[in-house]
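Tutorial, part two.
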Amino acid sequence: MMKHTSRVRPADALARLAQNGRRRGFRMATLAAFFSVFALYVAWHEAHGPGAPRDDELPIMQAHADDTSQAGAAGTPAGAASDLVTRGEYLARAGDCVACHTTDKARPFAGGLPINTPFGTIVTPNITPDPDTGIGQWTDADFLRAMHEGVGKSGERLYPAFPYAEYTKVTDRDVLAIRAYLNTLTPIHYAPPSNSLKFPFNQRWLMVFWNMFNFTEGRFVPDPKQSAELNRGAYLVQGLAHCEECHTPRNFTQGLKTSSRFAGAVQAGWHAYNLTPDKNSGIGSWSDDELIAYLSTGAAPGRANAAGPMAEVVTDSTQYLTREDLGSIVTYLRSVPPINGGEARPRDQWGSPANDVTALRGTTIHGVNGAQLFIANCATCHNWTGQGAGASAPGAYPSLIHNTAVGASDANNLAMVILHGVTRTTKQADVLMPAFASQLTDDQVAAITNYVTKQFGNPQSTLTVDQVAKLRSQQ
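Running the prediction step on this input gives:
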């Protein structure tokens, strides 16, 4: 019997070999892809994992935690977390968070401060860790998004009275340190009043359009061509310290006018002066030591004495910064383009002593007389000559001669000081000038202001009674 044997045609054999080859190639490609992905993951983990060096940990970005004796009332937990909290407290001071988020000193960080804007009143929120009225239920991601993008926990757009346009430059590491510090605060159950904004400005979604013109999200990028000191100063000034918010004029949308950065602006009646290195209008004639002294104590004898919002900044914030950080801020400010505001000479280069007290003896005064009012209300502290008392001592009564408030091209700050007084507390001294708003009428305040500027300062800087009345209403 003949056995039947099947034969495979050469063409079929070749097809099978090709098919098997494709399968092996596919398996090898899959295996190679798996190992490539695994290798990429290992590389990513090494670059971004828990122990990896991060871009935001460059030396110029590291906050220099202040001495523990400067710490606030909140305690710090034991262990490594205490360093993070101490760092966060220092950074929160650099950002002056307490100034806006405190309306009652018995409730620090509980919010409630009304901020008047051309569009209505914005009330600051509670940022204590209270779970119901504060940020106790916020995640770190929520906090980062608010600081960096201006978006709240529920996705609501935040108003730029909260300076997220500057805070966006702060590194994740520093933002989370601030968050760690805020978590240690005593929770305060307090719900601040609601905002009072006109339509359509009470529609938060409209902030999308404001952001298109006034906000660029992104962290600070050091300039490799500049020193570490200048970069550190830029990081602080442009970010946490948000100096431009007061010292840069605003455009019609109330965003910052970037073409006039640090050229000075009026905020709630107070003139935040030019910080550019222009020698007449700005700080170009100040020495580094004078600028550091002003930021750390609120006083630079022969130059200026902090009052109003700047006195609060010194009290709550800049006096706690290290000399290294203050020096970095000064270095950066000297690098910005100078802007001349039209002043003929520096604000602190005006004035001469007065001798009106002699001329007034035996004279019958008719009407409102600035010299008489000055001697009756101001000379006890500032001397009838205007030269002050105590020279450069921490608690000195400042001279009105060579004084930036008196030599400015507008007399706003001088009138505001007369109306609302001065309160400034530093490690060196408690400075208090009483407010005269309840003792003097608008025409009397105008008369004293104009006498002081004419005698001790810029004689072209005067105020009308109506202007004083408007300043009186400012908070």
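Residues 222 and 404 are 34 Å apart (CA to CA). In part three we will examine how such features are distributed along the chain.
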